[in-house]
Amino acid sequence: MKLELRHITKRFGTVVANDGISLTVQAGEILCLLGENGAGKSTLMNLLFGVTRPDAGALAIDGRAAVFDSPQDAIRAGIGMVHQHFALVPTLTVAENVALGDEPAGRLGWLDRRAAADDVRRLSDEYGLAVPPEALVGDLSVGLQQRVEIIKALRRDAQLLILDEPTAVLTPQESERLFGVMRRLRDSGRSVIFISHKLREVRSVADRIIVIRRGRVVGTPARDASESELAAMMVGRPVELLAAKPGAAPGATVLRLGRVVLRPGAGGIDLDVRAGEIVALAGVQGNGQAELVDLLTGRRRPAAGAIELRSDDIAGRSTREILAKGVGYIPEDRDRDGLVGDLSVTENLILDTYHAPPFSRRAHLRLGRIADHADTLMRQFDIRAASAASAAGTLSGGNAQKLVLARELSRALGLLVAVEPTRGLDIGSVEFVRRRILEARAGGTAIVLVSSDLDEIVALADRIAVLYRGDVVGIVGPDVPRAQLGLMMAGASAGTSVDAAA
Predict the structure, then answer these.
(1) What does the radius of gyration of the chain's CA atoms come to, in whole angstroms?
(2) Cα angle at 231 between 378 and 44, to 5 degrees?
């Protein structure tokens, strides 16, 4: 299949999400779409998959005009899409999930489970997917569930497959296996559109790269372009991808976990975090990171064990009590847990300190102090808003994250818990946030970092604690080979060699 997009334009009110985009996807190639969040990639893929219609421009498949009014139209035309969030039923088998919506019928019109299972085996063998058709989807790893989604698309004879941020929740080994599948699809004559913000992966797997910035195609860099060159093209200026990280000089222990049980059946976690160091929690999503963060921020009690902050047991304390003891928190979802969108920038900057000096005296807010505080932080953290009175909900993702960062780092902190601090941010904002975290480390703050981005973990962490099913399977340094780190994320102990696992 050869796909052409000709001068595609899509507007949402006054915002032009796609501005005259033209590109071609050849049969038998892996095309990577690279761009910052908000560049227009997702809008373009939704247009291509029939989720929405363009305001101007046209699509063509093998030289013939194509119009998609729904995803079903796109599927019938030979286009498949695997979204970041899978559309699978965990209580059904692989074969049943693959057949949903396109069920092979037996003599009496019932689902022919044998035919569905045969389809899964055939496609698994042909493309090296290795998915058992009889397995319950809920029992499968995230990587295997993703392969089920790919088989669903292939069973509907997709000639072009769109993969939207497909490695976001995969271990390095699972990512490499996915790249192998993509290459086999390409070699069979199918096309793949690969959307990712991970520059290392783009350079590894793409046959061709197209960079989109502010809704427009701004370049088609060579395959051997460096990560710095790709980042500069995405942003429009040179970018420091890895902030300089001086050697750590850890001080006294700030946080100590003693035999903390995260979930029933898990062992107890022992972990220390010292002043002036960053300890990252690595692991595939769902292996205990969220539970541990909830314990550290007072949102749940441990099933067993002690959590000490400077020798003071905080297990079971309220969130307000824990924050008052010098704990800062950057939540994973800044819109839901980090900000109150209807309140102003000024008000959001004092959400956890409004009741205490210098912002309050005798139950009265000191509005002058509060306003000065907001003006100072907006300058220091480059928070771009129409004014300090603007609602926080009107800010861009990068500015909203800077607001959360400014609020937490403007207090005297002993411990900072930072969860996915750069998720959803453009490269410029990523650069800013990482630099500020390293400055907090240099100032003596102990930092617990939770991130699904291994590049970020390696760039920032002094030590990496790998979580698997609620247990720490090992603690390693940031220089550990990625293959070894991937094995640990899959449950292997720190001492397991890559050769032995293979």
Answers:
(1) 25
(2) 90
Q: Are 241 and 63 in contact (CB under 8 A)?
A: no
**String of DSSP letters for 163-230:** EESTTTT--HHHHHHHHHHHHHHHHTT-EEEEE-S-HHHHHHH-SEEEEEETTEEEE---TT--HHHH
d(CA 454, CA 438): 17
Spatial CA neighbour of 278 closest among 428, 410, 475: 475
How many alpha carbons fall within 13 Å on the CB side of residue 190?
23
Residue 66: count other Cβ atoms within 10 Å of its Cβ.
18
Which superfamily does CATH assign the domain made up of 240-326+412-502 to? Answer: P-loop containing nucleotide triphosphate hydrolases (3.40.50.300)
Answer whether 169's CB lies under 8 Å from 142's CB.
Answer: yes
Contacts of residue 279, defined as CB under 8 A and 6 or more positions apart, other chains included, come to 271, 273, 446, 447, 448, 449, 461, 462, 463, 464, 465
- Domain 3-235 matching CATH 3.40.50.300: the answer reads yes
H/E element, 498? helix 498-501
Secondary structure element (H or E) that encloses residue 97, with its range: helix 94-99
Same fold for the pair 3-235 and 240-326+412-502? yes
The pLDDT value recorded for residue 244 is 74
Helix, strand, coil content of the chain in percent (nearest 5): 35, 25, 40
Give the pLDDT confidence of 51-67 residue by residue, as tens digits.
999 999 999 999 999 99
Q: Give the model's pLDDT for residue 368.
A: 93
Q: What is the per-residue pLDDT across 204-214, written as a single tens digit (0 to 9) for each?
A: 999 999 999 98
- Taking the domains of the chain in order of start, what are their residue ranges? 3-235, 240-326+412-502, 340-410
DSSP 310-370: TTEE-TT--HHHHHHTTEEEE-S-IIIII--TTSBHHHHTTTTTTTSTTTEETTEE-HHHH
The label of the residue with tokens 């372009």 reads 225
Low-confidence ranges of the chain (pLDDT < 50): 500-502
Task: Give the pLDDT of residue 494.
Answer: 64
pLDDT at 502: 46
End-to-end, the C-alpha distance of the chain in Å comes to 37
How are strands ordered across the β-sheet holding 268-274?
268-274, 253-261, 304-309, 312-313
Q: What is the pLDDT of residue 108?
A: 59
